[in-house]
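Structure, all two chains, one model.
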Amino acid sequence: MYYKPGLHILSEFKSVQRHLLNSSSFFRKHLEWLILEKKLQKVGEVYHDFENGGFTAVVCLTESHISIHTWPEFELATFDVFLSNYQHENDEKARDIYKGILEFYQGTELQKNEIKR
Amino acid sequence: MYYKPGLHILSEFKSVQRHLLNSSSFFRKHLEWLILEKKLQKVGEVYHDFENGGFTAVVCLTESHISIHTWPEFELATFDVFLSNYQHENDEKARDIYKGILEFYQGTELQKNEIKR
């Protein structure tokens, strides 16, 4: 057993689906489904909806974490998925999850960084 | 009011302070203190200690999030601090928090990325 770094994808995207940026409920259901489909293991989560719209969410996984912060007033979100390769090679899963989220929001990617860490 | 992106610092560091990598309790106290000192607003958190040592933690802030994942068996941690500039310019706070964590672990930086987003 040796340490294999994981892949962290950081994205900023635009979306005109303001209702999906405004409240965490739709995102939450979709992410739950993606986590189940990709057989990732959740160990905790925080969902926080702001009074004036927009939300912040982080899901902790045994494989690291997924996070989103939304600014509906700017039709904008920042999204992260970081999956370490401790027991499995998870780089493709990280890309699939990002793709699944971008599709869900019908998002237009403004910036994307992939960091091996 | 217009959207100003924030700064996300991603770091991998080594530390021989295995007890600080092994259990979340010391990190938690130190981070609480940093959050208080820097006047950041916590909205939720997840701390998860693994049975075989090591932990994963994410603290959600109104300003975005802070996360850490540790691998004591490799004397290694990945640390993130992402502070958006929605109401204040927070870039220096992000750098100060990272500096505070690295000092706490007497860590040796292996890789650091700073992403404006």
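The longest helix of chain A spans residues 24-37.
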